[in-house]
Design a protein that fits this description.
CATH superfamily of one domain: HUPs
Strand order of the largest sheet: 3-2-1-4-6-5
Number of strands: 8
CATH topology of one domain: Rossmann fold
Helix content: 40-55%
Order of helices and strands: HHEHEHEHHEHEEHHHHEE
CATH class of one domain: Alpha Beta
């Protein structure tokens, strides 16, 4: 028992040291994490933040980065590491709990039946599932006295979402670094990994020999069982498009990201603000 306890303590220490002592991870993970927090004013004194953990690499890294930020203790704020079980199978639930122990993250788990609710939905089950998960997270976080929820979306998620909205949504819309909830008064969503690249998260995961969930969705499992392969998604397709474009333009990702900061309203045919459409012809 003592040997197991010592092994676990050493593993947690190694994981935490990799973030603060290994140059690549300190610069590309922790420093970019804190940059987003400072630039977008994501964490304020007396905040109580629910760090939402899905079981994947992104949210587990987010939890470790928040723990490190807390150690700096520049001002008082609280953290809750919140895991929602939407109906995981036993193996996936166990994997999340084991990873929480290995990484030293004290999780709070609550259960829902979201997977059962969307399992037989044919049109946009992933969209419905995501909306329901977000709602349950807001509700539970508020019950626990939190005023913010933190999600693990990273830089690559931002540019993929931006491109997807254009190619398949027929609109220009990006993933915002923070949002005020429309349905839960006083609640806010923040994305502190906004500047963190997915390749650096993968490198950190592999360096520490960690194995996280990829997709624990029953709908995906069903599709794989029926077709023998994972279903095609627009996000994966978008990843491939970006990868191809990068072959001829190494700056393609940064350009997509920066384009959302350089919108020239005078050269836009129409735009929406607060639900109202403004057309250039109105002031022509």
């Amino acid at each position: 028992m003592k040997n197991n306890s010592s092994f676990l303590e050493n593993k947690i220490r190694e994981i935490e040291t990799s973030i603060t002592k290994k140059r690549r991870f300190k610069e590309k993970l922790f420093n970019r994490f804190t940059k987003a927090i400072v630039e977008f004013n994501m964490v304020e004194p007396e905040d109580k933040i629910a760090v939402c953990i899905s079981g994947g690499k992104d949210s587990m890294l987010l939890a470790k980065l928040f723990q490190e930020l807390k150690r700096h203790d520049k001002f008082p704020f609280e953290l809750v590491f919140l895991v929602m079980d939407p109906g995981y199978n036993e193996a996936n639930r166990k994997k999340i709990e084991e990873n929480a122990k290995i990484t030293g993250v004290p999780i709070t788990v609550f259960e829902t039946e979201i997977f059962d609710s969307v399992y037989n939905v044919e049109k946009n089950p992933c969209y419905l599932c995501a909306r329901m998960r977000r709602g349950y997270l807001y509700k539970k976080a508020k019950e626990l006295g939190c005023n913010k929820i933190a999600l693990g979306h990273h830089f690559d998620d931002v540019i993929e979402t931006t491109l997807m909205s254009m190619l398949w949504g027929g609109q220009v819309q990006t993933m915002m670094p923070k949002l005020k909830s429309k349905n839960y008064e006083g609640m806010e969503l923040i994305r502190p990994l906004y500047y963190v690249r997915e390749e650096d998260i993968i490198a950190w995961r592999d360096y520490n020999e960690l194995e996280f969930l990829r997709c624990a969705c029953r709908f995906t499992e069903k599709t794989e069982a029926e077709n023998g392969e994972s279903s095609e998604s627009k996000r994966l397709e978008t990843k491939r498009i970006i990868k191809e474009l990068k072959k001829t333009n190494p700056n393609i990702e940064a350009n997509i990201f920066n384009s959302m900061r350089n919108v020239y309203i005078d050269a836009v045919i129409a735009y929406k603000k607060d639900g109202i459409t403004h057309n250039f012809i109105d002031e022509y």
